[in-house]
Amino acid sequence: MDFTFDEQQRDFRSTLRAFVDKEIVPVANEYERSGRYPTEIVAKMKQMGLFGITTPEEYGGLDLDKVSFTLVYEELARGWMGIAGILGSHNLSCWMIARHATAAQKRELLPKLASGAYRTGVGLTEPGAGTDLQGIRTTARKDGDHYVVNGTKTWITNARHANVLPVLVKTDTTVSPAHKGMSILLIDTTTEGFDVQRDLGKLGYKGTESCEIVMTDVRVPESALLGGVEGRGLQQALSGLEIGRLNIAGRSVGIAQAAYDAALVYAREREAFGRPIAEFQAIQLKIADIATQLQAARLMTYWAASRADGGKRVDMEAGMAKTFASETAIMASLESMRVHGGYGYSTEFVVERLYRDAPLMAIGEGTNDIMRTVIAKSLVAGHGVIG
């Protein structure tokens, strides 16, 4: 059993780590406090090809293996989780398009998306439908060679910067079960009636926008139907979320790593009663717990990613990695704050940002409660085997 990176993965991680340490870590707190969008960081990520990590090479992408894919999010989230979010939704969308789109749709969109000339995200969640995607109310009524779309989407990352947005709609509201009438439309965001109405306030996850979108009689050509066949939208979305959960697991590991690094540095430097607090057993126990769960989360994430590289469905593996790693991120950020004492509550230290960013990892790409049901169903059905 080999738990080491190959040479290409090691070099790639070194490049990512140097970029994060130089370009993101020094400015993350300042950018977040001021509400500044990280335009310069995005431009550098375009130059590095990071907007094309899930796009096939024939369309100008990097087409990374899934372990390297998770490394991208681990390293970026170690610096600032919001930056990882900018890439997360974009590359999930690119993966769906690369896997499900028609040849014409791939030729038209993927080269622009891989370079970052075009940006994208995913339009799934609605005010009344998040976990239960079959409960969406956004409709797409056929009118000649167009669809007329009406509805609202919420918590949409990259909404203000997206050129094209895959939107989950109901093309048939009468069929049962509901998923048979669901499709994804690749909507040009400049189309009349497509309105990004507001940015949603958030506890953490700053740096990238999360918006509410209202679509009023938006006319979308039938050529924008993902894959060219109606009724496959939910399956297309769920296949993307499976890979998205590896992204969330990687981000969670990055947050936990940053929390561990901060706790260890502070414990070595902070003195109480005439010696560094790292010498006190109570502090040592916290650091040991963070480090142990962090490494377990990292290995589980790489395991799930390597299974995906084997061409297998990874509902169970990605669900396990996402659940365990996100809970680890929450634990690590809180325990790191406790190591810091009062300074952990200060905006001058990174740990309070980590504490605010971590909870989203237990919610995004499917809540951890839902992940547990996904894991259990896979085990009961015999698709997943443990031991």
Automatic annotation (TrEMBL):
Residues 231-379 form the Acyl-CoA dehydrogenase/oxidase C-terminal domain. Residues 122-218 form the Acyl-CoA oxidase/dehydrogenase middle domain. It comes from the Bacteria. Coiled coil: none annotated. Residues 7-116 form the Acyl-CoA dehydrogenase/oxidase N-terminal domain. SUPFAM superfamilies: Acyl-CoA dehydrogenase C-terminal domain-like (SSF47203), Acyl-CoA dehydrogenase NM domain-like (SSF56645). Keywords: FAD, Flavoprotein, Oxidoreductase. Its cofactor is FAD. Pfam families: Acyl-CoA_dh_1 (PF00441), Acyl-CoA_dh_M (PF02770), Acyl-CoA_dh_N (PF02771). PROSITE patterns: ACYL_COA_DH_1 (PS00072). PANTHER family: ACYL-COA DEHYDROGENASE (PTHR43884), ISOVALERYL-COA DEHYDROGENASE, MITOCHONDRIAL-RELATED (PTHR43884:SF12). Belongs to the acyl-CoA dehydrogenase family. This is Acyl-CoA dehydrogenase family protein.
